[in-house]
Write a structure and sequence with these properties.
36% helix, metal ion binding, cobalamin binding, 11% strand, cytoplasm, alpha+beta, two-stranded parallel sheet
Length: 358
């Protein structure tokens, strides 16, 4: 039995939202644990194999869609939003229009968000415990099978748009999510309503047409999947569509009209590091493995490793102009230890219609 009586949980919920603001979150919402609608959608998505090689999406049974199975005793979920937009979107558009520039998804320009959000969520849990005494909880930031967007939608943080990202009417979609599963009977926030209307800008802009229908994304075609999640070769028919995107893709967010309300983040940890917001493909292609590890320390980018980093940049170079500098850099990678790197460098050289010299 918790020392707080049930009638006070409404007041506690308001206090939790206030504490969240103090800790740097832009919004806190609360939901119950009924994710049956999302469970049905997830089941269909998996049955159609739209998760590609992301086997972890199907590896946890019902834990992902039934919070109390993942964390026994869970009665309510605290969902938190933290904005991350590091720069004016006009700069992103300029990069995408410049074939020699390297485009990295804006969320990955700064420090890895996982630890930052996890620490803030822990502080929020500590504040709750200081107020009511010990309680059962577990915090998550992409660290377990959690349907974070479905939870956030129920908690009133936004609605899941046609591109499958969460959209907030007052903040757009440039934000991270985190959750605290609790055994507290906290009152639920009002769920968000959908405001996509007839807009299909995200479907039309998607470079690989991965948004196969409104609210349906085939991850196997998604640039983020191809450059981050996929471990092997990028399908040849999709390589030309990647352009200069070497880590993730923001096109569907950049085009979304609701992002005119997005605000730049005040978090210094989300600011670009090592010129990742303003580097050329050739500059990043020249990183040795030790340089890659050093410059991606504390970054989400490190998880793909140096080989896939080179794989992605080779494809981007193959989509660019056939310069002597590109030819020289790609030719050098034909001697790389990794077959994956050699394959994509060879393709890039052939794409540029340049002779290959071993």
């Amino acid at each position: 039995m918790h020392p707080i009586e049930a009638p006070d949980f409404q007041q506690l919920a308001q206090q939790i939202k206030a504490w969240g603001t103090e800790l740097g979150f832009q919004q806190i919402g609360i939901s119950d644990t009924d994710l049956s609608a999302a469970e049905h959608y997830l089941g269909q998505w998996l049955a159609e194999n739209r998760h590609g090689d992301m086997h972890y999406m199907a590896a946890h049974g019902l834990k992902r869609s039934r919070p109390a199975v993942l964390q026994p005793g869970t009665r309510s979920i605290i969902s938190a939003r933290m904005d991350y937009l590091p720069e004016n979107p006009a700069h992103s558009h300029a990069l995408l229009d410049n074939p020699v520039a390297a485009f990295v998804s804006r969320y990955a320009l700064g420090r890895d968000y996982h630890k930052l959000l996890r620490n803030r969520l822990q502080k929020l849990a500590d504040k709750i415990a200081a107020e009511i005494g010990p309680f059962g909880y577990r915090a998550f930031v992409d660290s377990a099978p959690v349907l974070e967007k479905a939870i956030a939608e129920k908690a009133g943080l936004g609605w899941i748009g046609k591109h499958s990202n969460l959209i907030n009417r007052r903040a757009g979609s440039w934000f991270f999510l985190g959750e605290i599963y609790t055994d507290l009977p906290l009152p639920s926030s009002t769920a968000a309503s959908n405001h996509c209307g007839q807009c299909r800008a995200c479907l039309d802009i998607c470079p690989t047409q991965a948004i196969v229908a409104p609210y349906q994304v085939d991850a196997r075609r998604c640039v983020s999947y191809l450059t981050i999640e996929l471990h092997g070769s990028i399908p040849e028919d999709l390589r030309p569509l990647l352009g200069n995107r070497i880590y993730g893709c923001d096109d569907c967010q950049l085009i979304c009209p609701w992002n005119r309300f997005a605000k730049l983040s005040a978090e210094t940890d989300f600011r670009p590091r090592h010129k990742l917001d303003n580097s050329t493909l050739l500059e990043l292609f020249s990183w040795t493995e030790s340089e890659f590890l050093q410059k991606t320390e504390g970054s989400a980018i490190r998880r793909i490793g140096h080989q896939r980093w080179l794989r992605n940049i080779a494809v981007a170079l193959g989509n660019g102009s056939p310069t002597e500098a590109s030819r020289t850099a790609l030719t050098a990678k034909l001697q790389h230890d990794s077959e994956l790197v050699r394959e994509h460098a060879t393709w890039a050289l052939q794409r540029l219609t340049l002779p290959i010299s071993l």
